[in-house]
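FORM 12-B: Structure-to-Sequence Request
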């Protein structure tokens, strides 16, 4: 069965959500509408809608004019074997001692690696994005250097891939936080599937804004694969909740062009740059707090 999609881009989340609501009222009605932030540093949002019948091009054109956005790109979507598609597009990811793979690749488990099974879901972090892989490689370097953190937190955990990787290495309970309820549900499911219940504690919170997180401070390893804006906003609190000296921070979700500005915020607070890993347009940086 052929379905149809219609996409455009808005310059703010508010306008994107208003447009998404307006799309739901046109005829034929879409069976799904979504708003996704574009991770290119532009602070823009993609509005996507899906239809069983060919969408009303005139109605969409009027909406694009009213909301001041570019014309919708309308495409036909042929019926797809999504299981085969996932198998083809999401092969196992190897990063240092870690192997991240989907359940469809369970026969590819490696005896020489730390295996984590994570299926593609609505939460971010299957290991295939450059930022996730960069964080895993940064984590590998910390492990190889013999660092043994005692209190670890993963901010913006998504699928909990980084928290689970750390839990497999060091064994103690890792805190994994995310602002999104769906991400926390996904993270909990992954933690249970990978038999790490009791080793990874998933908490819904914005940044460090949780009594539980505050109680567990101070941290000596902080991982945060989010975006430049939130990372800058967290700089002060991250420093406050870190050990006075000796804390490592693995930060990602940063375009390479944004690294200098981001690091300046942390350098003012006593952080020094220990390492950078660049994959494509994205850079992961490892910081060390030395006060």
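FORM 12-B RESPONSE
SEQUENCE OUT:
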């Amino acid at each position: 069965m052929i379905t149809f999609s219609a996409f455009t881009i808005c310059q703010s989340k508010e306008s994107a959500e208003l447009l998404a609501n307006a799309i739901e009222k046109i005829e034929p009605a879409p069976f799904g509408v979504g708003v996704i932030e574009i991770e290119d540093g532009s602070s823009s949002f993609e509005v996507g809608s899906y239809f069983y019948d060919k969408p009303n091009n005139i109605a969409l054109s009027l909406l694009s004019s009213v909301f001041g956005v570019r014309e919708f790109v309308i495409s036909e979507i042929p019926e797809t074997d999504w299981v085969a598609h996932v198998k083809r597009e999401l092969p196992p990811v190897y990063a240092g001692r870690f192997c991240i793979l989907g359940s469809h690749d369970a026969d590819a488990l490696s005896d020489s690696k730390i295996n984590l099974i994570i299926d593609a879901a609505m939460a971010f972090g299957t290991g295939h994005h450059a930022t996730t892989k960069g964080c895993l490689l940064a984590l590998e370097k910390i492990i190889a250097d013999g660092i043994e953190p005692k209190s670890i937190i993963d901010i913006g955990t998504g699928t909990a891939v980084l928290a689970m990787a750390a839990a497999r290495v060091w064994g103690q309970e890792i805190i994994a936080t995310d602002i999104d309820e769906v991400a926390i549900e996904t993270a909990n499911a992954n933690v249970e599937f990978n038999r790490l219940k009791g080793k990874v504690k998933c908490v819904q919170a914005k940044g460090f804004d949780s009594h539980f997180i505050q109680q567990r401070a101070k941290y000596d390893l902080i991982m945060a694969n989010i975006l430049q804006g939130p990372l800058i906003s967290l700089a002060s609190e991250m420093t406050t909740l870190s050990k006075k000296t000796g804390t490592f921070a693995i930060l990602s979700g940063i375009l390479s062009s944004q690294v200098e500005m981001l690091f300046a915020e942390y350098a003012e607070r006593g952080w020094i740059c220990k390492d950078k890993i660049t994959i494509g347009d994205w850079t992961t940086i490892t910081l060390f707090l030395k006060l």
